[in-house]
């Protein structure tokens, strides 16, 4: 089963990019909501990563269940009160579920879900909101990152790789921890550059491709020949710089090799550490449409295809030793032979 993940981001004060709200006409007849309410995280739609993965799940659910939906962009420098207003607007309008993309929506989800007990809320990347009508859609990001580390270490010709995190927070520490552990499982002496773009999300760590490009340039100059980013929209700068300098880069969340806006760089995208955000959004919507809404912690892992490693690049597939090492690492994690660090 794929994992359920939810997205909450913006509504009253944000820019609505789609509003096709209409009463559901599902075959089961159990669903009477207006459709899906989706609020994006920092960076918004078009990041070719985290938010776009949520949108893919939103689109699939809209089409398959023949229901409407409204997805809303965030604003720069917004407050928790702005998020509360957005989610309230979506719930009052009859959207169900209402999904917030990103941990920054935790306070807003907690506040609004209490006021609309008959509406199902979802939040991605946070498990602190405990309520009967809230699904906490979270992932073992460290497991996918371990595979990224194995791939990076095996592909590196210099024994020198890099990690670029968007914001210095516990969630992104999980990505780094798994990556470092995976790389060192291949080469205990491997050199690893590590850098966080900002201390807080408000400083643009997830939404500044220029910051990502500068960080990548510095790590490549220091000698790293494979980079891995967990930086949202900022990762586009990492990818473009890696391609310009002809080194490998590992994408994150979505299969970035297959993203059309990154096509110019795809020959240098070794693979991507996947987080099935789209599957989580879809699964939550399906549960509501079926009249059996998910609630509580729903966690994606390698064992339930909630996380993984994308192998779309033919150049990666041709590196049989790298592929074999990643496949073995996945098996070891699923079997419980390897436990991946989160810090």
What are the defining features of this structure?
343 residues; alpha/beta; eight-stranded mixed β-sheet; globular; disordered N terminus
Concise summary:
The chain is α/β, with parallel strands linked by helices and 343 residues long.
Relative strand content: 15-25%
Averaged pLDDT, please? 91
Strand-pairing-aware structural class = alpha/beta
SSE order, one letter for each helix or strand: EEEHEHEHEEHEHEHEHEEHEEHH
Can you characterise this structure?
- By secondary structure, the protein is an alpha/beta fold.
- Helices cover 38% and strands 23% of the residues.
- It has ten helices and 14 strands.
- The longest helix has 17 residues.
- The N terminus is likely disordered.
Topology record:
Layout: E1 7-8, E2 15-19, E3 35-39, H1 50-65, E4 68-73, H2 80-92, E5 95-101, H3 106-115, E6 121-124, E7 134-139, H4 141-155, E8 160-167, H5 170-186, E9 191-198, H6 209-222, E10 226-230, H7 235-244, E11 248-253, E12 269-275, H8 277-289, E13 296-300, E14 307-310, H9 314-318, H10 320-335
Parallel strand pairs: 3-4, 3-5, 5-6, 6-7, 7-13, 8-9, 8-10, 10-11, 11-12
Antiparallel strand pairs: 1-5, 2-4, 12-14
Helix pairs in contact: 1-8, 2-3, 4-5, 4-10, 6-7
